[in-house]
Design goal:
- The complex is a heterodimer of chains A (412) and B (148).
- Chain A is mainly α and 412 residues long.
- Chain A is built from 17 helices and no strands.
- Chain A is 79% helix and 0% strand.
- In chain A, helix 4 (67-110) runs antiparallel to helix 15 (341-367).
- Chain A starts with a helix and ends in a 6-residue tail after the last helix.
- The relative contact order of chain A is 0.21.
- Chain B has 148 residues and is mainly alpha-helical.
- Chain B is 84% helix and 0% strand.
- The longest helix of chain B has 29 residues, at 3-31.
- Classes of the chains: A mainly alpha (412), B mainly alpha (148).
- Chains A and B meet through helix 4 and helix 13 of A and helix 1, helix 2, helix 3 and helix 5 of B.
Amino acid sequence: MSKYLEIFLGILTAMGGFVEIGELLFTVNAGVKFGYSLLWMIAVGTIGIIVFCEMSGRIAAVTSQPVFYFIRQRAGYGAGLLTLLAANLASLLTCAAEIGGIAILLKLLFGGNYFLLVVVTLIFLLLTVWFLSFQAIERIFGLLGLMMLVFVAAGFWFGPDWSQMAAGFVPNIPEVKTSSDYLVYAYFAVALLSSIMLPYETYFYASGAIEDGWNPASVTQNRLIVIVGFSLGALLAVGLLLNGALYFQPLVIEPQLPGTAALAPAFAFGKYGLILAILGMFFAFSGAAIENSLTAAYNLSQFFGWSWGKYRVPKDAPRFHLSWMVVFVLAALIILTGVDPVQVVEYSIVFSIVILPLTYLPMLLAARDEDYMGPYANGWLAAILGWAYFVLICIAALAAIPLLVITHGGRG
Amino acid sequence: MTERTRTFWIEVVLLVLIVGAIGTAIALSEMRPLNKDDIKMNAGDLRSFAAVGRRLMEQHDGQQVTEQFFAAEVELLSEKVSTTKQTLEESSAQPDAENDRREAVELSTHLRNAVDDLASGRGDGNSLGQVFDAIQTRSKQMEDRLSR
């Protein structure tokens, strides 16, 4: 495949894989509650994920070592093990939420018993990862996830106020009814940041770079994919927020189900809009479920030094392959207890931000180390952005759980 | 015990304590009687569910959604309303919030009936739409009153 086509597909895949169930619901509800006011947080989160994914991809391309190798090496065994447990718990919860979301979408498309559809989803995901190659999984789910662009089209179809929208990209504190609403605003700001900078994305991206056989010559490709792909992905998030602000806010609806979110494109484009939205979500959530199960298996294998890689047959990497299967099964079991997937999303997102500093610090230290990285070590821009974001995520990590409790999960 | 092992176990114990404390705080908050804030949140849910019901009805009438989508989404909405109703019915409330709890239970019962009517196709669109609007308005008023 030509290099340009590979970069083009990489960009589209990064874009299509940008949104998962947590980001979808948090972003739409951020629009419902605060109109355009939180658009700036999408920009902040997107730059953050670009900075850290670029770094993790560059480290992987130059050293052929994934993120968890550096976490264990830089943070030590104890802190590394805690990060591993926390990261895999977050991935398990996220995977569970995605499986619940997929089952709901299947119900909206075909009907049937929800719990039976959870089992169908589990089988579908197991078979998909078993039979498809890493590249095929990445491309199929990333590219078909682009059907979610119908939310962007709907967002612009509703006719946003361009000047207010531009103002929303500048950090601001909106006028609110009560003082407790300021805390809800802070909660949504933190949750949006976390949902965009979910740590599994960095682990998966770096492991994927190694699966794809990247080398130092891939550094430019890496940079292009994260900058262009994630920036376009942010357009999806902006579209979702516009749906919240322009369609749901006047109707005083706070969507708690993926199907409710699909009412906006259905209003704009009728049944075709609805079907595109549901199929787009189906592929985006499925992609995220697969990424989370593989991420948990990558993390375990990389931390304990097991043989790993989707390109390896199960015989050559048995513990790796067993791990992603176990994660899928555990995630499905969580949903089969009857827990609301949306509630699981909430906890997984808030929990994820708590572990972000533990993930990003070792990466930041490795990326600036010239002994490892040689001429590819962090330049001044990556260093400034990296440390600035590290401080930001530390503050967000400290604030996340108190805000979750005080605001009752953003409900006021 | 080496320094490294001791540090590791201290970290593990700290993590378990933090997770345990958060878990206990969440469990305790679930078990305590409902206060005005809790009822305000439930009223907010009912307001949103009523608005979804109204919107689903309109978009179904306007043929903007498929029959399958409509049936499944109404079923999921009904489950959400039932969960809220059950929470309000089965929880006790603080003395100063008891009247509000009863009012919220009444609203949730009306909403549950309206969603059932929507699912079964009973009642004409206009009157059902008015029922959803009325529940939405009352829930909003309740929410605003409890916000003060």
